[in-house]
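help with this.
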Amino acid sequence: MTPDVIHPAAPTVTPAGRKAELRLLAWSEQEGRVTLVRTRFYGSAPAGPGHGPEHRAAGGCSCGMIEGRFAELIAGQRQGVLVTLRKDGRPQLSNVNYAWYPEEQTIRVSTTDDRAKTGNMRRDPRVSFHITSGDFWSYVVVDGHAELSEVARDPHDAAVEELVDLYRAVQGDHPDWDDYRAAMVRDRRLVVRLRADRAYGMVHRG
C-alpha cells in the first residue's frame, strides 16, 4: 500500500522511566483505512545495567543554544568528524581538528581550497559534526550550516588573521608566526565556520 497522507499521531508516554512514543499513521483513500507506518521513541531509556545511579546519562536533542553537557563535551575536545554531502547525496566524513566558540555557537575548522569537502560545502552548506569523549561512549552530533572564509592570499589578510586565531584556540602559541602565515597563503587555506542549529547525542557521567 502506498499511503496517500502521513500524519503524526499524538505522542504518548509509556510508564515512568520508559521512552516517549511518537507514531506516524498513514491514511489510504483506496483501501479506506489507517495504517501504522512507523513508531519512533524519544527520551531516556529505561534504567538498566550501566544506567543506574553510578552511571547517569544525559541525552536527547538541543535546539537553539547548545549548553549543559553537550557544550561541555564539545568544548573539552579538539578533534571531531566533519560530515559534508557529495553530489550523489552520500556523506563524506573527514577527521579534523576544531575549536568551539560558545558565544557564537560556532565550530571552526581549517582546511584548504582544493579539498573535496570544501567543494561539497560550496555546493551544499548543510553539514554535521560528530564529537566523542575519550572513552568513546559519550557523543554529540552538531547539525548546522557551513560558512567559508575567503581563501588566504596575503600573510596579513582577514583570512590569515582568522586562521591564526583558530590555531591559537586549538594548539596554543606557534614558534614562528611569520612562517605560519606564509604557509597559510601557500596552502590556500581557509576557515570553515559551522553555525550550529541543533545538537543531539548522549553524554554519560560517572
Summary: The chain is about 20% helix and 45% strand. The longest helix spans residues 158-171. The first strand starts at residue 5 and ends at 8. The helical segments are 68-76, 116-123, 158-171, 177-186.
